[in-house]
## 1
Amino acid sequence: MGGLYHGRILLHWCDSCHTPVLSDTCSCGSSTRAIPVTPPGDARPAFPDDIAFVNQVYEEQFGITLIAEGHLALLNKVPDHDRMEEIIVGGSIVGAIRYVPATNRWEALPRPDAALISKPKKRFMVVDEGAVQSIRDGRSLLAPGLVSCDPSVREGDEVFMMTPYGACAGVGRARVGAEEAERMERGQVVKTRKNIPSEFVPGKSTWDDAVKANRDVLLKAEAASGKFIADSIAPYERLYKSVSYSGGKDSLATLLVVMKTFRKTPILYIDTGLEFLSTDENVEDVTRFYGLDCVRIPTVDAFWQDFESNGPPARDNRWCCRTSKLEPLRQYIDKHHGEIVSFIGQRKYESFSRMKNPRVWRNSYVKNQVCLAPIHTWTALHVWLYIFQEKAPYNTMYEHGVDRMGCFMCPASDAGIIERIRTMHPGLWDKWDMKVKEWLHKQNISKSSSDRDELEMTGESVE
Ligand SMILES: [Zn+2]
């Protein structure tokens, strides 16, 4: 991974303000410390629904409330087979959650600091004092080092290894269940996970405090984006300018930054008819709040037309982007302007592949649109803090466990996120499932479970 990574981890923590800071100095004057998150390090705030969800997963597995009330928490997406997120509390990575598609469930992967927040009530082992140092050094727990094992432990479980005095020696995966562990005389009981130490300093704070702590950071980021716009717009100055607005946080931050330069810039929204209700509402809110012109390009008919011939889009058959977005956009520009400039909320920290993307480009399919990415160098946390600072109306879906706007059934989504959307918005899925069923029926394909697996658009994240 090291060779692919071209960004710098910007995420730090201020132990005086108890907030994340995207710089080595807090606006309060204190020095901050770096948080060793996994690259690309695009951490975002945990909203109340995220916190409830993380706490539920940790409660079920360990009887722990991982994120205590009044504490800020961040989630950092880690490259994984499906969806995995590190959880940052008190400036430490206290654990992760991971979606396991095979069992269709979310799993908690704690770090030793989680035991500082609250002691595990299940899925723990007590280890002999003599074994503690070797566990801390990353070696596995062997049978002679085990004192006792909580009866809830099954083979393959994530477990805490606690000292007789109640401190955490390490975490890892149980090789055997509780009964066998107690019976064994030799061999490996727990495969220890190597821990990257990070310091846990708890303390209450709010997102308003975090905005204050990042005041200088945000001023700098805003100025740099303004300078980018000023430096790159010259060759396209005569063209029609718009902000490509998706209803997502990145396009909102882009709009905010662009308005600092151009005041009222029209927004361009491609309405695929497959958006969350909250996205349509957000487009209206933003248009009204800032008194903007909104060009809405409806593409729903084109989607269902192509659906008839192509079937539901899938990971390896993503015809939908071209049908629902690129082609209608190209036609719109052609008909009304000939050529336009669009400000787009693309960011390099979103993924490793985005790191390599240019900041000014033309899509090979929409050559009549010059794209500029003013917030290319921002992380998700810059975006959120800036939105909070500007008190901008953001899409409420973010508060309900969805971190990626756009078509709800997007085949590029992680299975874990699709599963959460399914649970939270059964109405959306019932309608979608019905359409898929109808199509399958027409194709005369029996919906055997293997077909269903193929058609459920799951898998790892695609950029
Ligand atoms: Zn501070």
## 2
Amino acid sequence: MKSDFTYDLVIIGGGISACVFASQFLKNNITKKIALIEIGRGLGGRSSTRISKRFKGWKLNHGAPNFNISNSKNNLLLKSYIDELLKNKFIKIDDSDIFFLNQDLKSENIKKSEFSCGVNYLSLNSMSELSKKIIESTNSKEKIDFFFETLIVDMKFNDKEWLLTSKNGDKYKSKYLICSTNLLLHKRSLKILKVNQIPLRKAIPINNDKKIDLLLNFLEKQTFIPRLTFLIYTNENYSYSDYYSKNQRNFYLKNNLEKKYRFERIIFQLQDNNKLGIVVHSKNEELINSYISTNDEEVLKKKIITDFNKLFEENSLVQKLTFDEKISIMRWRASQPSGLAVPLSLQFSRKYRIGFCGDWFEGDGFGRIEGSILSALILEKKIKDLIK
Ligand SMILES: Cc1cc2nc3c(=O)[nH]c(=O)nc-3n(C[C@H](O)[C@H](O)[C@H](O)COP(=O)(O)OP(=O)(O)OC[C@H]3O[C@@H](n4cnc5c(N)ncnc54)[C@H](O)[C@@H]3O)c2cc1C
């Protein structure tokens, strides 16, 4: 039998922006009935952790491994929130090694990537755990109903409330709606959700709300960077060649090298049991296409190991991999927004009682966790008095 649920506020998505929004909102609105709906099996979204069933004991951050705040000095809201996360010991300053490999395969120590400028932070546990801790800091268990493995495919608004329908036909009613993902607002929804109209456009036809029209216009020009991450569960005795005990070690490939090897960055992640996991990121189109079209993943995995070994051939810190390392591959169809960012002024429609947050809004943190957190904090401030 299909179920029917009614709430004061529903949040679609369980990534870090949703968790920040929910935790801040709950601090001020303890009596409201809230639900969070997420298609994944847990919280974290693109900043989450693969806890492998096949390879026991491994926790590899397969999306964002850490995050950087490039601009907190000029933003007190963001600064005080990051200070709170530090005080609660959810995060710590990340002083891991960051190397930039140049064309001659030599390491340079200068920080200059979009993911490493400013101050870097690391979750004290895994990245999924960070989102969980943020939301649990407000004793959310009693205050929020979580619906995991639930994909919203349709949304409707009548004057009273939002009506959401999941893929398996469950219905969720809510007076206010927060979308922490723009999937339901973007043309990629047509293919992914197999619908014939962008769900938000269907719910709010053109010329009913200028803000919504503008929002959808901006999103028409937003594109997404696909990525692959290769998760390497190394063999028993694999370690660095030197002594290094910090949680992560990052190698970025400078432009020409990235083109040649098709790797963007490589993050070594020390596990609780002292094993050393490796996550290789790639946004190379050719590599992504070869993954999509391959009938033989084993060949691709062998190629990754060959290239990894070639890249680190003369590196004094990194040992070679063997061909029997276990590898799993994660394909991110939309790892990061690109193109046009959406102005924060379009974040909330009073008429339709709908708000939006995530890394797809304008600002220094566009396309990164910094933007996700900041947009969630700003949205909560915008609507907190309305929903009291
Ligand atoms: C490989 C990779 C590396 C990255 N590296 C970095 C980095 O080093 N530093 C950095 O700052 N950022 C990095 N990023 C970007 C960073 O992960 C994102 O900016 C951030 O996690 C976005 O969080 P969010 O809450 O805005 O969105 P998301 O994490 O995307 O959350 C949205 C959630 O909504 C869910 N959802 C979507 N549609 C529906 C639906 N219809 N029904 C139910 N649920 C739905 C999704 O499953 C998702 O969990 C990286 C991303 C990837 C993929």
## 3
Amino acid sequence: MKLLPSCHDVQTDLTEYAEGTLPVSRRLGIRLHLWMCWVCAAFARGLEALPGIAKTALAPPPEAPGAATDALAQVQLALRKPPGT
Ligand SMILES: [Zn+2]
């Protein structure tokens, strides 16, 4: 077993590394690699940011501003009126 994993090894194992499910020897190798390799460190930071980005992207939209809510109510009221009134 290699002491220092390759970039491919690190990027393949990052999810398990983040979850803490890798054996200690592999975690240490990845930690050392991340300390020395800015490419994998950036990849790891991007992976760590994903849950927050997904949460933001999947969150329901904020409530409509008051003006939009009022306009929508007026449109709905107009649609309920019988024609010619
Ligand atoms: Zn690397």
